[in-house]
Amino acid sequence: AVGAAMAEGEGLVSVDYEVSGKVQGVFFRKYTQGEAKRLGLVGWVQNTSRGTVQGQIQGPAAQVRELQEWLRKIGSPQSRISRAEFSNEKKITALEHKDFQILK
Question: Which pLDDT tens digit goes with each residue over 56-70?
């Protein structure tokens, strides 16, 4: 199974995410942007009126997985993540964003 995952990790993927918990007012967006840029990913992040943070990640599957783990377990230093949900995962042929932006 590991070999199959590695081979599949070459393509580009897009996935939407929403993170719940204490994730607003703790520089969560800034840290997410920094982590995404470190991994070479594109997409966006924004606060929602529900008190969550949501966005989209695009890039090589292996790096997207890394950011998903980061969103699930780490986040910004003062954040308290209760849940990270991922949806609409799909393979893409080209990136749809130029960089990783913080949306207001």
Answer: 999 999 999 999 999
